[in-house]
Amino acid sequence: MVEHGKSGSNVEATVWDHSDSKEWALPIKPLEEKWKLVPAFLQVKGLVKQHIDSFNHFINVDIKKIVRANALVTSDADPLFYVKYLDVRVGKPDIDDGFNITKATTPHECRLRDTTYSAPITVDIEYTRGTQRIKRNNLVIGRMPLMLRCSNCVLTGKSEFELSKLNECPLDPGGYFVVRGQEKVILIQEQLSWNKMLTEDFNGVVQCQVTSSTHEKKSRTLVLSKQGRYYLKHNSMVDDIPIVVIFKALGIVSDQEIMAHIGLDARAQNGFGASLMEAFNLKIFTQQRALEYMGSKLVVKRFQSANTKTPAEEARELLLTTILAHVPVDNFSFQMKAIYVSLMVRRVMAAEVDKTLFDDRDYYGNKRLELAGSLISLMFEDLFKRMNWELKMIADKNIPKVKAAQFDVVKHMRAAQITAGLESAISSGNWTIKRFKMERAGVTQVLSRLSYISALGMMTRVNSQFEKTRKVSGPRSLQPSQWGMLCPSDTPEGEACGLVKNLALMTHITTEVDERPVMILAFNAGVEDIREVSGNPINNPHVFLVFINGNVLGLTINHRQLVQNLRYMRRKGRMGSFVSIHTSYTQRCIFIHTDGGRLCRPYIIVSSGRPLVQQHHLDELQRGIRKFDDFLHDGLIEYLDVNEENDSFIAWNEAHIEPHTTHLEIEPFTLLGVCAGLVPYPHHNQSPRNTYQCAMGKQAMGMIGYNQKNRIDSLMYNLVYPQAPMVKSRTIELTNFDKVPAGQNATVAVMSYSGYDIEDALILNKASIDRGYGRCLVYKNSKCTVKRYANQTFDRIMGPVKDALTNKVIFKHDVLDTDGIVAPGEQVLNKQIMINKEMPAVTSINPLEGQNAQVPYTAVPISYKGSEPSYIERVMVTANAEEDFLIKILLRQTRCPEIGDKFSSRHGQKGVTGLIVEQEDLPFNDFGICPDMIMNPHGFPSRMTVGKTLELLGGKAGVLEGKFHYGTAFGGSKVQDVQDELVRHGFNYMGKDIFYSGITGEPLEAYIYSGPVYYQKLKHMVQDKMHARARGPKAVLTRQPTQGRSREGGLRLGEMERDCLISYGASMLIMERLMISSDAFEVDVCRTCGRLAYCSWCHFCQSSAHVSKISMPYACKLLFQELTSMNVVPKLMLENY
Amino acid sequence: MPEERNQPLSYLNEFAIKQDPEDYGLADDVFSIEAFKQKLHIVVVRNDEDGLEFDMIGVYPAIANAFRRLMLSEVPSMAIEKVYIYNNTSIIQDEVLAHRMGLLPLKADPRLFSYRTEESPETGTEQDTLEFELKVRCTRRKDTLKDQAHFDDIYKNHKVYSGHLKWLPKGKQAQIYSESSVSCVHNDILITQLRPGHELDLRLIAVKGIGKDHAKFSPVATAYYRLLPQIELNREVTGKDAYLLQRCFSPGVIGIDENERAYVKDARYDSCSRNVFRYPQLMDAVTMARVRDHYIFNVESVGALKPEVIFVEAVKALKKKCRAFIDEIEAQ
């Protein structure tokens, strides 16, 4: 039985009546194959469905709303002029082929050609030209980058065969964008819920805050208590406004009416008296006076426009639009706002008395997740508004001018602005929205294609807005309300720990649905409009307030009945399945939510202690005559969001169903995410180990998709012989990891060998490596464009140069084809040229007037760097978006494992290769089996990865039996069964075999635990890291050795190392390391003036009489010169040494 | 096998292998060639398709192990070492293809070839080199019916097998060998798959080498030994327990007589899984041990040489090494 969160004491919540108690005696039979609901769910919802749903909602619904809201553009210059948007559509993806001819495109073409996968946004408009009214249809106003597999994407609804025709991997989840050839993901952004009251203690001040968010405005309003008085605080006002003033400004003038809103009991009256007194002291008795008071406290606007509003009018405007912007005001009746403010005051008053009423910011019900759709809609609205504003400016400017041609606004509509705005936002990740003063960086990231899992894991990532540097534990720690919604294991270590999270397997993020039908249903179900009742009922303890999306809807007397009815209607499909209804007993409120960004997850409904899903339903599912949606439709399964989950009693499995249970978990393993799902038997591991594996699974090499051979990525690691793991899990099957694996099953012997296995180092069998174990392919690309310039010059590619003497092609050009580009299949060595490109020396202005003048060219070859040679896999010549030639070369290396290469099992147990041993030296067992890998047993006690030992056992039995075992979380093959299988094949039941030493030939005294374990080869390889330098390049400015391996840099003798040498007294060594081997420089110093001299001549003294040569670091000399240039004179006083 | 021989035993206890307390192993033994000759027995138990099984009795582990090690890494065989790729338009990478070619077992008898030396030319000589070519081109079958979807029906040569290898005799090699005597051991090893338009054109150079250099030169799939198991019943086991006991060992190890009494039928093929320790009631009933100087060798050949030849080659190799060592000592 899982009891979530805070409402545990309210057992009465949703208990059904049961008269028949005998039924309870019968045990509930576990539903067989209940897990099959998970693939059925993923079929409809998919792992990245939240991204795609959200984007679909934007391009099909939201964009139309945005355009409708900003439909009219008028001009101050001509009252008759207007532009009206009638409709907007996002088209099918295409690519500009020049001369305004477009051609349908595919995502893969865009990846290869470094272009953006986008579709035109077309509008139908009506506008005036002079006195004519003109309609224009299908006018392109910009291009929308398309999310892969969204409703307008070419990949949607295609079969596997069709997808492979489009060069797309059928397993690729989509949900990302291709912008300028790069795959970009818009990470899910976690935010505090908007339009929701949050009571909290802020440095000792009890306050209730609401972040209002509507399409037009975002603002934060606070009600706080200071010295027993209540105030309203808002950014647009310099001072806190006494709350009674606000009430009066909102039109509730009499003190009695105010008290009716606050509460009429003695405690409320006592608590609120001081506030009433304050308003009295300020002599504010009327609405007008209150507005004037507020007007005097307004923040002075920087750009005072030429409006003639009085401060009081401005204050009223503020109350109307900005303060609590989400609360509706119709016809200047502020009643709803007054009620809302009074509720906020009540919350503060209640929290002052009872500290437990503070809201928890980290509680996941108070969070909303922002997805690609809503983020892009913000960006698009901003750009669209800007375009319309600019159209208006153009109209204002041009209409008064008298011209031959009439002013035609269509000629001034430019598509480039929206296109470039969206494209650059997605490609840079900088989300700047001026009207909300929003400025966010790092919203998008390049999709990591290290392995299939890393790409999939990235699509489920949730980014928190919290600052990473702050030292707070609250937002980082695992919240109980994250249960089932976010993976408890998958989070990075280090600074982003707990702030970057991952969705669990069955989590769905809601998209906004219309609240009006729900409101009507609620009213029909007995909710009474709050405007029609007086203040008294609000104070009645039996009356519950009903909120919808943070707004007060009304109140109800029978809250239990109402919730039950509403839920019943949801189950019957009368409202969207993602509408959530939950009761808060502490606040005496019922909350209905229909907004987007809530986390939710499906559960089996339990009624009268029986799960509604019966075995025959599952059989129907298996036969394919029932789909997941039918379960929803029939009211057998429903989605619960975090808040409603907290209002329910959810049984972990059938055995845990009790009389008051309301829901049953579909499958426990779904509370883990994609990455944690790879771990076999994770419930047997120490939890940090699963977290480590989540990080390492993303670095494992293997396959990245079926289309990996068609890709030209800047870096791609592949395994030559990837294998599906012997011990699988359901998640592995659901995520298709067994089809695109990243690792190999190595026969592991857990024993010590040779001492080269300390600190988790591994011993590898040379024969295994010879036969292809751990062999990997490393692909890199190098590319260049061949441009045309404005002055009629262009880049060119020259053929190979021959040596004049030998008539042989010179070494550097040895791999070039006759066209000046490398030939596929060639081996390129360090410093060889792959593209022999030349560029005109002058590209900007037309340098030569003569027609056939020779343009001087400079060579800008693309050459190969790297100590190890590479092979040319492929050469691609195409054109990019700017219609330049684009040449991409794919380079390949095949690498065998070597000492120092990093390997890891799926249990967070990483290690480097310590030694590679000949097969004959390795131990062998009675069956002649020789391990591929030896792992030191010291890796186990402190790490407590029992799951790994179980994986080994399961793998061994699986190999013998010829089947896969399962290590699914909270389930999996039982050890007893696995052992029986081992015994059946004549193996020891504990998995321990007799081994003989390969060196002495005698049997080893201990029995060795051995069998196959799935090992991942990680991307960190010695070849990419090894670095040493004796001499090499120096930095130009300081003349010190360069930094970093890529620049063949020096190895720094740092401060701490220097301290060691100082304390040891090795002064000459310091001298050598820090100066002689670095940037020693001979300078002339004038002994009379102490300044630097030059060529034995002191320019200051105008003499060479007292100039000496000393050697010092060049950096020191540079410092002196820089100081001199800033009018600071450093002087050197020399003495004989 | 002389039964009366006092067999040195190692006991298989529950958690470790323990030596006989009476047995001091090698510590006290003084090596004499006469005693060695007298003690050494070799009994061939099985020699068939699957490999060779023979017993080597009365030797030190070092000697038995030496043969095992030599068979794995010092007995030479022929394997493809160089691959000249003239054309490869398939999806498999050149290096991976070359690696796969190298692992193909060849039937050529390594004894008839010599090692490549520094002096031998790039292309090799007929004494040290075998040359093959692989020319495959995948095409679409013209006679296919419309609805056929099976690759075998619509493509020609879409699977490249080791049988596609063609031997190119060098010099007089054609008179000495036949194609069947030098080519791949199996003709159905899948090398790669092709699709119409893909083409392979390779020239392969096979040379003689040893397993120490690369596993592909090892003439054995595996060569190992195990010690002879010995099982003794300490007490009478009858009834249900007897059947349970029977199941704790490999089939045929424990017999049950008409009185439902368990007896040790033949311990030789027991897998020594020690599964009796799973049952507390049987733990004390059996003593399991292994005869410390009775080695059951298993040699599985890759196919070029017969397993017995491999063993003899290993002996020769050891002899040669000893000779070289003695020469070194005597030269001092």
Automatic annotation (TrEMBL), chain A:
GO MF annotation terms: DNA binding; DNA-directed RNA polymerase activity; ribonucleoside binding; zinc ion binding
Compartmental location: Nucleus
This enzyme's EC code(s): 2.7.7.6
Domain DNA-directed RNA polymerase subunit 2 hybrid-binding: 675-1047
UniProt keyword terms in alphabetical order: DNA-directed RNA polymerase, Metal-binding, Nucleotidyltransferase, Nucleus, Transcription, Transferase, Zinc, Zinc-finger
One of the GO BP terms on file: transcription by RNA polymerase III
CDD domains given in the database record: RNA_pol_B_RPB2
Domain RNA polymerase beta subunit protrusion intervals: 46-419
Function statement: DNA-dependent RNA polymerase catalyzes the transcription of DNA into RNA using the four ribonucleoside triphosphates as substrates.
Assembly mode: Component of the RNA polymerase III (Pol III) complex consisting of 17 subunits.
Similarity comment: Belongs to the RNA polymerase beta chain family.
Protein known as: DNA-directed RNA polymerase subunit beta
Taxon lineage: Eukaryota, Metazoa, Ecdysozoa, Arthropoda, Hexapoda
UniProtKB/TrEMBL annotation, chain B:
Highest taxon of the lineage: Eukaryota
Protein name per UniProt: DNA-directed RNA polymerases I and III subunit RPAC1
GO cellular component: RNA polymerase I complex; RNA polymerase III complex
Location of the protein in the cell: Nucleus
Family: Belongs to the archaeal Rpo3/eukaryotic RPB3 RNA polymerase subunit family.
UniProt organism field: Drosophila lebanonensis
GO terms classed as biological process: DNA-templated transcription
Main location: nucleus
Pfam families per record: RNA_pol_A_bac, RNA_pol_L
HAMAP family in UniProt: RNApol_arch_Rpo3 (MF_00320)
InterPro entries: DNA-dir_RNA_pol_insert, DNA-dir_RNA_pol_RpoA/D/Rpb3, RBP11-like, RNAP_Rpo3/Rpb3/RPAC1, RNAPI/III_AC40, RNApol_insert_sf, Rpo3/RPB3_RNA_Pol_subunit
UniProtKB keywords: DNA-directed RNA polymerase, Nucleus, Transcription
GO molecular function ontology, one term from the record: protein dimerization activity
DNA-directed RNA polymerase RpoA/D/Rpb3-type domain boundaries: 51-328
